[in-house]
Design goal:
By secondary structure, the protein is α/β, with parallel strands linked by helices. The protein has one domain: 3-Layer(aba) Sandwich (Rossmann fold), CATH 3.40.50.300. The chain has 8 helices and 10 strands.
Length: about 240
């Protein structure tokens, strides 16, 4: 019952994908394809008929929708089937609240109860007909910026516990360079594993920590564009090639 990320070699290393009812941290600096992998995970779930809820803290649901549709011509059909729900904590802050049946607006990220209720509402619809669903949270960095690492930890600990119990497999983003090492380590204690991305000597590389992977051998090269991320190095070789 794993959920594939949509990146073939990455899923091979994960023995099928992200473990069911787990939470994975997607960690890296800007412009290394982090958001591309997040969208790829969402679309892979939707293609398999697995519903998803997207919690957005620093972008509008319409922006995510536009990018998903650009990558997948069949995307409107998934939306029509009710397979995707958006929890948008951002749009009201910039004065855009276009009505849409798949969107629940929350009046600010700091309204923790409203965010949790919106996620619960989406999950309540999903669990009637689906054994599992995907959840993305983009991003933890915004949550920490508005509060602090301790408050974010306490809130996410409860939220993730409830979503896992409801059948969610989650992918959460954290921006490298915005936080102290102590803050990053605190967030890592919330999750079951980390997919870390970075640029090294002009090459994009990633590695996996946790998630049941015991034979990871360090950094592996990957490439990406606006719509797709692909691992081009070899995990088995233990080096970039």
């Amino acid at each position: 019952m794993k959920l594939a990320t949509g990146v073939r070699r990455l899923d091979d290393q994960l023995k099928g994908g992200l473990p069911e009812r787990s939470a994975t941290l997607l960690f890296g600096p800007p412009f290394v394809g982090r958001e591309v992998l997040l969208r790829q995970f969402l679309l892979t779930a939707l293609r398999a008929g697995v519903p998803a809820v997207a919690v957005l803290t620093d972008s509008a649901w319409s922006d995510l929708r536009r990018l998903l549709e650009a990558a997948e011509p069949q995307f409107p059909a998934y939306e029509k089937k009710g397979l995707l729900r958006y929890v948008d904590t951002y749009s009201r802050s910039i004065g855009t609240t276009e009505a849409h049946p798949a969107v629940e607006y929350v009046d600010g990220l700091m309204n923790f109860n409203a965010v949790s209720l919106a996620v619960n509402n989406a999950e309540r619809e999903f669990i009637r007909e689906h054994a599992q669903h995907a959840l993305v949270f983009d991003s933890i960095s915004t949550l920490i910026a508005y509060t602090n690492a301790g408050t974010a930890f306490r809130y996410l600990q409860v939220l993730l516990g409830k979503t896992k119990a409801a059948g969610a497999t989650g992918l959460l983003t954290l921006s490298q360079g915005m936080h102290t090492d102590a803050e990053v380590q605190m967030v890592k204690h919330l999750v079951d594993g980390v997919i870390e991305l970075k640029t090294d000597n002009g090459k994009n590389v990633l590695r996996i920590d946790g998630l049941g992977v015991t034979d990871t051998r360090g950094w592996v090269e990957y490439q990406f564009n606006d719509q797709k991320l692909e691992v081009t190095g070899s995990f088995a070789a233990g080096r970039i090639r």
